[in-house]
Amino acid sequence: MQEGFVEALLIGFVGALVGGILAYVAAMRAARFTMEKTAFLDRQRREEERAEIHRRLTAQLLAEIKDNIRVLERPKLEFGFAVLVHDIWDTAKGQVSFATPEIGESVRQAYTQVYWYNAVVAAATVDLAAVRWISSMPLVENRGKEARAALERAAHAIEQT
Predict the structure, then answer these.
(1) Less crowded by CB within 10 Å, the N or C end of the chain?
(2) What is the pLDDT of residues 109-126, one digit of tens each?
(3) Which range marks the domain in which residue 136 is found?
(4) C-alpha angle 153/68/57, rounded to 5°?
(5) Closest CA to 124 of 111, 110, 109, 141
(6) What is each CA distance from 146 to 3, 55, 89, 116, in whole angstroms?
(7) At what angle do helices 101-124 and 2-71 cross, to 10 degrees?
(8) What's the number of CA atoms in the CB half-sphere (13 Å) around residue 33?
(9) Strands (DSSP E) along the chain, which ranges?
(10) CA–CA separation, 18 vs 24, rounded Å?
C-alpha cells in the first residue's frame, strides 16, 4: 500500500513538474510574442509620427517659400523694403530630408539667397538716406530677383515630390 502511495506521489510530482515546465515555456513564448508585437507597433507608430512631422514641415516650408515669392512681387514699400521670412527653414533644416539631394540643395540655395537679400535690406533700412540711395540702385531689386528665382526653383522641386 505504501508502495502504491509513493508511486502515485512520484507520478503526481513528475506530472506537476512537467506541467510547470510546459506552463513556463508557454508563458515565456507568450511574453516574447507580446514584447515583439509591442516593439513592432511602437516602431511603426514612431515611423508614422516621423512621416507626419516630415510632411507637415515640408508643407510649411513650401508655404513659407510661396509667401516669400509673393513678397518679392512688390519688395519696395513706402518706408523701405520687405524682409523675407525664414522661420520654418530655421526649424526644418537638419530635420527634413528631401526625396533627392538636388531638392535639398535647391532649398538651401534659395534660403542662402533669402539671407543675402535680407542682409542687403537690413543695410538699406539703416536710415532714410540709405533707403533713398539704395532705392535708386538696382541692388535690392537684383537680389530680390535672384532670391525669387531660387525660391521658385525650390518650390517647384518640392512640389514635384
Answers:
(1) N
(2) 999 999 988 888 777 667
(3) 2-159
(4) 75
(5) 141
(6) 102, 27, 18, 10
(7) 50
(8) 6
(9) 76-77, 80-81
(10) 10
- Tallying the residues shown for the chain, one arrives at 161
Instruction: Write the burial class of residue 146 (CB in 10 Å: 0-12 exposed, 13-18 middle, 19+ buried).
Output: middle
Distance CA 56, CA 8 (A): 70
Cβ-contact 121, 80 below 8 angstroms: yes
Instruction: Report the alpha-carbon distance of residue 76 to residue 91 in Å, rounded.
Output: 28
Q: H-helix or E-strand containing 115? A: helix 101-124
How far is Cα 75 from Cα 130, in angstroms, rounded to an integer?
16
Contacts of 96 (CB under 8 A, 6+ apart): 54, 57, 58, 61
Angstrom distance (rounded) from CA 88 to CA 95: 11
C-alpha cell at 63: 508655404
Query: Can you tell me the distance from the alpha carbon of 25 to that of 50, in angstroms, rounded to the nearest whole number?
Result: 37
DSSP secondary structure letter of residue 1: -
Tens-place pLDDT, residues 122-150? 776 676 676 667 666 677 778 888 888 99
How far is it, in rounded angstroms, from Cα 103 to Cα 154? 7
Rounded-to-integer distance, Cα 67 and Cα 78, Å? 20
